[in-house]
Amino acid sequence: MQLRHWSVLLLCFCHASPAVAQTPPAASPAARIDGTGLGWVALGKADFVNVNCDENTWTFPDSEIHCTGNPVGVMRTVKEYRNLELVVEWRHLKPAGNSGVFLWASEKNLASLKRGGLPEGIEVQILDHGYTDAYRKSTGKEPDWFTTNGDVFPTGNARMTPFPPVAPNSSRSFPRKNTTRGTPEWNHYYVRAINGEVRLWVNGEEVSGGSGCSPAAGFLCLESEGSPIEFRNLRIRELP
């Protein structure tokens, strides 16, 4: 969706009451926001700081962001953000790949992370469909606590009231639609995070989110979690 009327939509979301968090408003029509236009800026090498990964875990060839997946950890933005829109395209390079985008991680929490640690915040998960098969093979069980189509959930001591459908343990917002493509295809995420409410669009379809998030300000992080992944067209727009 080219946001010709984005200011009107933003006004509606900014005045949404957290008290109705259990039942999200109707999903927006299918559309894809490309992250261009007034206020949008691209994020690249100069906009990130390594937190607890190796020096070569993250590289930035040809305006893309590449991650080896090792060790487990994150890099964070130089800036902290509160209200924002984020566009990112990503693709896993191996089946069962795992990664994510963390919103609103605190400086104190990030400074305390050891090698292999992940931050507290709101995670927008990035999983390849092969992760489900790997889980079945390793446990002999059907997965009921995660999906591979865009879960949103709090990590550590962070809090969020997930939009339905909700995981059995009540912590995750499961996607209402399954629109993610498997490796090695590219996927498009659009995230809108306003006043402690997070909404995720996957390949043009709004699928999941939550409200009442705490924290609701902090750093954005990209996750390294054991498998190579590539990001491109990472763009952000700060909102009032």
> Which class in CATH terms?
Mainly Beta
Ends: how far apart?
20 Å
* Architecture per CATH nomenclature, i.e. the level-2 architecture: Sandwich
What CATH calls the topology is Jelly Rolls
How many helices? The count is 3
Please describe what this structure looks like.
- The protein is mainly β.
- The chain has one domain: Jelly Rolls (Sandwich), CATH 2.60.120.
- The protein is built from 3 helices and 15 strands.
- The radius of gyration is 17 Å and the shape is globular.
- The relative contact order is 0.27.
- Residues 1-21 form the signal peptide.
- Residues 52-237 form the 3-keto-alpha-glucoside-1,2-lyase/3-keto-2-hydroxy-glucal hydratase domain.
- GO terms for molecular function: hydrolase activity.
- Residues 161-180 are annotated as: Disordered.
Q: Helices, strands, pairings?
A:
Elements: H1 6-14, E1 41-42, E2 48-50, E3 58-59, E4 65-67, E5 73-81, E6 84-92, E7 98-105, H2 107-111, E8 121-127, H3 130-139, E9 152-155, E10 159-162, E11 187-194, E12 197-202, E13 205-214, E14 218-224, E15 229-238
Antiparallel strand pairs: 1-15, 2-5, 3-4, 4-15, 5-14, 6-11, 6-15, 7-8, 7-14, 8-9, 10-13, 11-12, 12-13
GO molecular function: hydrolase activity
Keywords: Signal
Region (Disordered): 161-180
